[in-house]
Amino acid sequence: MTRTLRQYPPPSPPPSELIDSYFHADYVTQGITLRLDAPTPDLNTWLAANNCTRAILITGWNPFSQELPLAENEQRNQALKRDLEERGLRVLDAVGRSRDAMAWEEPGYCVLECDEAVTDELLVRYSQYAAVVADKATGCSLVWHPSIRERLPIRASFS
Question: Considering the chain, what is the average pLDDT of its residues?
Fold first, then answer.
Protein backbone atom coordinates (compact mmCIF):
# COMPACT_ATOMS: atom_id res chain seq x y z
CA MET A 1 0.00 0.00 0.00
CA THR A 2 1.36 3.43 -0.89
CA ARG A 3 2.07 5.98 1.82
CA THR A 4 -0.23 8.91 2.27
CA LEU A 5 1.03 11.92 0.34
CA ARG A 6 0.73 15.48 1.46
CA GLN A 7 -2.34 16.81 -0.32
CA TYR A 8 -2.55 20.12 -2.11
CA PRO A 9 -5.73 22.14 -2.70
CA PRO A 10 -7.38 21.89 -6.12
CA PRO A 11 -5.54 24.20 -8.46
CA SER A 12 -6.41 27.38 -10.20
CA PRO A 13 -5.42 27.25 -13.86
CA PRO A 14 -1.66 27.66 -14.29
CA PRO A 15 -0.31 30.99 -15.57
CA SER A 16 0.03 31.34 -19.34
CA GLU A 17 3.86 31.22 -19.14
CA LEU A 18 3.68 27.80 -17.51
CA ILE A 19 1.14 26.56 -20.06
CA ASP A 20 3.47 27.70 -22.85
CA SER A 21 6.38 25.96 -21.12
CA TYR A 22 4.43 22.67 -21.11
CA PHE A 23 3.63 22.99 -24.81
CA HIS A 24 7.25 23.77 -25.73
CA ALA A 25 8.96 20.99 -23.79
CA ASP A 26 10.46 17.61 -24.60
CA TYR A 27 9.02 14.49 -22.99
CA VAL A 28 11.48 11.63 -23.32
CA THR A 29 11.08 7.92 -22.66
CA GLN A 30 12.71 4.77 -23.99
CA GLY A 31 14.26 6.24 -27.11
CA ILE A 32 11.46 8.58 -28.21
CA THR A 33 10.95 12.29 -27.67
CA LEU A 34 7.33 13.38 -27.52
CA ARG A 35 6.45 16.98 -28.31
CA LEU A 36 3.22 18.89 -28.08
CA ASP A 37 4.20 21.64 -30.53
CA ALA A 38 5.28 19.39 -33.42
CA PRO A 39 4.41 15.95 -34.76
CA THR A 40 6.21 12.89 -33.42
CA PRO A 41 6.68 10.94 -36.68
CA ASP A 42 7.63 7.63 -35.05
CA LEU A 43 4.87 7.71 -32.44
CA ASN A 44 2.68 4.93 -33.85
CA THR A 45 5.70 2.71 -34.50
CA TRP A 46 6.85 3.27 -30.92
CA LEU A 47 3.38 2.56 -29.50
CA ALA A 48 3.13 -0.64 -31.58
CA ALA A 49 6.59 -1.77 -30.42
CA ASN A 50 5.32 -1.38 -26.84
CA ASN A 51 2.08 -3.25 -27.60
CA CYS A 52 -0.17 -0.32 -26.77
CA THR A 53 -2.30 2.36 -28.39
CA ARG A 54 -2.09 4.94 -25.59
CA ALA A 55 0.49 5.95 -23.03
CA ILE A 56 0.85 8.81 -20.56
CA LEU A 57 3.86 10.56 -19.08
CA ILE A 58 3.39 11.74 -15.52
CA THR A 59 5.53 12.78 -12.57
CA GLY A 60 5.09 13.09 -8.84
CA TRP A 61 7.44 16.09 -8.68
CA ASN A 62 6.49 19.66 -7.77
CA PRO A 63 2.72 19.35 -7.19
CA PHE A 64 0.88 22.05 -9.10
CA SER A 65 4.33 23.44 -9.98
CA GLN A 66 5.14 24.28 -6.36
CA GLU A 67 8.85 23.67 -6.03
CA LEU A 68 9.64 21.13 -3.33
CA PRO A 69 12.95 20.00 -1.82
CA LEU A 70 14.72 17.24 -3.76
CA ALA A 71 14.11 14.61 -1.06
CA GLU A 72 10.36 15.25 -1.03
CA ASN A 73 10.17 15.17 -4.84
CA GLU A 74 12.05 11.87 -4.90
CA GLN A 75 9.73 10.43 -2.25
CA ARG A 76 6.68 11.51 -4.27
CA ASN A 77 8.07 9.92 -7.44
CA GLN A 78 8.87 6.68 -5.58
CA ALA A 79 5.29 6.63 -4.26
CA LEU A 80 4.00 7.15 -7.80
CA LYS A 81 6.08 4.25 -9.12
CA ARG A 82 4.87 1.94 -6.32
CA ASP A 83 1.29 2.99 -7.03
CA LEU A 84 1.69 2.23 -10.75
CA GLU A 85 3.30 -1.14 -10.06
CA GLU A 86 0.60 -2.07 -7.51
CA ARG A 87 -1.99 -1.37 -10.21
CA GLY A 88 -0.16 -3.82 -12.49
CA LEU A 89 0.60 -1.15 -15.08
CA ARG A 90 3.57 -1.33 -17.43
CA VAL A 91 5.96 1.50 -16.57
CA LEU A 92 9.02 3.02 -18.25
CA ASP A 93 11.28 5.76 -16.88
CA ALA A 94 10.67 9.17 -18.44
CA VAL A 95 11.70 12.79 -18.10
CA GLY A 96 10.07 16.07 -19.05
CA ARG A 97 12.29 19.07 -19.71
CA SER A 98 11.83 22.56 -20.98
CA ARG A 99 13.30 24.00 -24.14
CA ASP A 100 12.55 27.57 -23.03
CA ALA A 101 13.69 30.12 -20.49
CA MET A 102 11.75 28.48 -17.61
CA ALA A 103 14.47 25.77 -17.50
CA TRP A 104 12.89 22.85 -15.69
CA GLU A 105 13.44 19.11 -15.73
CA GLU A 106 11.38 16.52 -13.90
CA PRO A 107 11.80 12.75 -13.88
CA GLY A 108 8.66 10.68 -14.05
CA TYR A 109 7.15 7.67 -15.72
CA CYS A 110 5.63 6.60 -18.99
CA VAL A 111 2.61 4.42 -18.25
CA LEU A 112 1.70 2.16 -21.15
CA GLU A 113 -1.97 1.58 -21.99
CA CYS A 114 -3.14 3.87 -19.18
CA ASP A 115 -6.83 4.66 -19.57
CA GLU A 116 -8.50 8.02 -18.99
CA ALA A 117 -10.00 7.13 -15.60
CA VAL A 118 -6.64 6.04 -14.16
CA THR A 119 -4.98 9.10 -15.68
CA ASP A 120 -7.45 11.35 -13.85
CA GLU A 121 -6.94 9.43 -10.58
CA LEU A 122 -3.17 9.91 -10.86
CA LEU A 123 -3.46 13.62 -11.66
CA VAL A 124 -5.59 14.12 -8.56
CA ARG A 125 -3.60 11.87 -6.20
CA TYR A 126 -0.22 13.33 -7.21
CA SER A 127 -1.49 16.93 -7.53
CA GLN A 128 -0.34 17.45 -11.10
CA TYR A 129 -1.61 20.10 -13.48
CA ALA A 130 -1.33 17.76 -16.46
CA ALA A 131 -0.03 14.56 -18.00
CA VAL A 132 1.23 14.08 -21.54
CA VAL A 133 -0.82 11.65 -23.58
CA ALA A 134 0.59 9.76 -26.56
CA ASP A 135 -2.30 8.24 -28.50
CA LYS A 136 -2.35 6.30 -31.77
CA ALA A 137 -5.46 8.14 -32.96
CA THR A 138 -4.77 11.68 -31.74
CA GLY A 139 -0.99 12.06 -31.44
CA CYS A 140 0.52 13.84 -28.44
CA SER A 141 -1.48 16.16 -26.21
CA LEU A 142 -1.91 17.28 -22.62
CA VAL A 143 -4.70 16.10 -20.39
CA TRP A 144 -5.32 18.65 -17.66
CA HIS A 145 -6.26 17.99 -14.04
CA PRO A 146 -10.03 17.29 -13.94
CA SER A 147 -10.84 20.37 -11.83
CA ILE A 148 -9.35 22.82 -14.37
CA ARG A 149 -9.77 20.93 -17.64
CA GLU A 150 -12.71 22.96 -18.95
CA ARG A 151 -10.82 26.25 -18.57
CA LEU A 152 -7.62 25.36 -20.42
CA PRO A 153 -6.50 25.03 -24.05
CA ILE A 154 -6.45 21.72 -25.85
CA ARG A 155 -3.68 21.49 -28.39
CA ALA A 156 -2.31 18.33 -29.94
CA SER A 157 0.46 17.50 -32.36
CA PHE A 158 -0.72 14.92 -34.83
CA SER A 159 1.69 12.23 -35.93
Answer: 90
